[in-house]
Description:
Layout: E1 2-8, H1 12-23, E2 28-31, E3 43-46, E4 49-52, H2 70-78, H3 82-85, E5 87-89, E6 93-97, E7 100-104, H4 108-118, H5 123-135, H6 148-152, H7 159-171, H8 182-195, E8 198-200, H9 205-217, E9 221-223, E10 228-234, E11 237-243, E12 248-256, H10 260-266, H11 275-278, E13 284-292, E14 305-309, E15 327-331, E16 345-353, H12 355-359, H13 363-381, E17 392-398, H14 400-407, E18 431-433, H15 442-458
Parallel strand pairs: 1-2, 1-12, 2-9, 6-14, 12-18
Antiparallel strand pairs: 3-4, 5-8, 6-7, 10-11, 11-12, 13-16, 13-17, 14-15, 15-16
Helix pairs in contact: 1-9, 1-15, 2-15, 7-8
Amino acid sequence: MHYETIIIGAGLSGLAAGIRLAYFDQSVCILERHTTIGGLNSFYRLRGRNHDVGLHAVTNFAKPGTKSGPLSKLLRQLRLSWDDFSLCEQNGSSVVFPGASLKFDNDFSLLESEVAESFPQQIDNFRRLHQFLLEFNELDLSQEAVSARKAVAEFITDPLLLDMLFCPLMFYGSARADDMDLNQFVVMYKSIYMEGFGRPFKGVRPIMKALVRKYKESGGILKLRAGVQEILLDGNRAVGVRLDDGTEIAADRVLSSAGLAETSNLCKDQLPIEPSERQPGVVTFNEMIDVIDTEPADLGHDQTIIFFSETEEFHYQKPDQPCDLRSGIICSPNNFQYGERLEEGIVRITALANHDYWLGLEDDAYQAAKQVWADKIRETSLKYLPDYRSHILDTDSFTPRTIKRFTWHENGCVYGAPVKRLDGTTGIDHLYLCGTDQGFLGIIGSMLSGITMANNHCLMG
């Protein structure tokens, strides 16, 4: 077997890259270790109900027919239609800290007015920051990593407002403890505060199905239960892969969505990378999903997402405890403007987690701990939600152990390693990265990562 390009991983970035290459008549094969597609943004069925794994909301919302922006670019590059995503707008979200809150939706003017009202002495600084971010070229893949906290603090001098602005962006896109790369801050600021949240009525499943359909229609090959054991090298050049069952597949190039450290492992640590780049991330999460017998809005809660911190200083790091109850995300998938009601109510609550604790438990202790900490996380959220506990029909939860099982990310870290390779190079000829450790995050960002790396490395001679 020989392909022009082998792609490791059938997540969003891998599928998008595959579509792009197959459209230009490349022979391309996507290899996925698991029995289903999606990676961090997959779906599953449990006790008769469909669940999304990672989807709270799709960032970079745009209305159908919009000619500019990441979503419009994505659809053009993949030859998909607006109906393939069918995004519905959020109702509105908020950031809640002690003594202050900021509402935002898909109209940036709301956030601007909230900052003006709650932090009147900072509004001019905020507007200068906004202009700086508008002029920043986050698509420059040659730029060096810069601390976003240091850069933003040159504009925002109130530490509370600074932490409130960072909170949603870090929760949804930072692999670094207590900071972000400035590039990623800009990406997330634009995708969340300026473009906003949307969600398909039926969750991530229709998006994944549309990607697979387009990929196969274009001639791409998708192999499930085909885990890669090793990337084969000839000197300093990638020439193919060896699968878990020993099968060898040759390729002109390999595009890996596994992550930088994980790709290095597949090369038997022959990647010429710095020790700092080899360090895996430590920021990861527990999430619990409650299914309830009514919609949250019927109980008086109509916000889409609440990002909260119990302390004025936002802590975004590996906690000492199994989970950090000082902050979290409350997502209500019902609270988008669908035009019809979901069959059941859903409440998703996310907290920072200690990966060492969750990865080190024996099976029986692990199941018991999941229940204990799901109850604790839910209890914390009731400061921001009506008490819905009497309406619960079913509960599921996942941990860093779940994430590691289905993504193979070291430490079960959602956003990969702190050091990113924006240009996708690895130091090995014909071996490139896409996805988490390339640096574009979120559902739209992941797909754009696959497209950009395919364009830059697999279609350019």
